[in-house]
Amino acid sequence: MVATRWMAIGMILRQIRVGRMANFTYIVGDEASKVVAVIDPSWDLEIVLDELRHGLKLEYIINTHTHFDHVLGNEQLKALTGARIVMHKNSPLDKDVAVDDNDVIALGNLKMKVLYTPGHSKDSICLLAENKLFTGDTLFVGSCGRVDLPGGDAGELYESLKRLAMLDESIEVYPGHDYGYEQYSTIGREKMNNPAMKVKSKDEFLSMVGG
Ligand SMILES: [Fe+2]
Prior knowledge:
The chain has one domain (2-209): 4-Layer Sandwich (Metallo-beta-lactamase, Chain A). It has eight helices and 14 strands. The protein has helices at 2-8, 45-52, 68-71, 74-81, 154-165, 187-193, 195-198, 202-209, and strands at 11-18, 23-30, 35-39, 57-62, 84-88, 97-99, 104-107, 110-116, 125-129, 132-136, 139-140, 143-144, 172-175, 185-186. The longest helix is centred in the last third of the chain and has 12 residues, at 154-165. It starts with a helix and ends with a helix. The protein binds fe (ii) ion.
């Protein structure tokens, strides 16, 4: 655990609970250069803007996927700051940067890697920076994203969660909604406690999520 904490030194991370759907907006970046990204700006943008006023330089607005509750604040935040909007290439919305699996977004000295994780939607990504994984609506604390919306696919979500389960168990999980018993978790704890990650087979997962 000490090593895990140490790895995070030098990183800016703010988790902000916004709106009435228990969404999380995140500010993530590099402590040395103060370069940051906002992940999933939505409601309550004034709280995010207040944080940014502490000398932070917003370069990117990154959406874990383009459901309305994760992109609502995009245009206003862009107009106020000039930040560029980053989305997966499958997103139908206007974007400045289209990313795909394994692309890396540089925030000063901090590298943020894109993992393409479809299943909840066709443009769902997770973002890995140091030992912190931003999972959007792919993985929540104690559950996973729904698959019954347009573009949802239970089989794809199963594969995406399997991929996340291969990551180091000490990696911290920061979800897109505050749906769990805690606001963040680790891959190890989710593998132990989360029914969506504990399943023994694809069939078991499909019958669980109704896919
Ligand atoms: Fe969603």
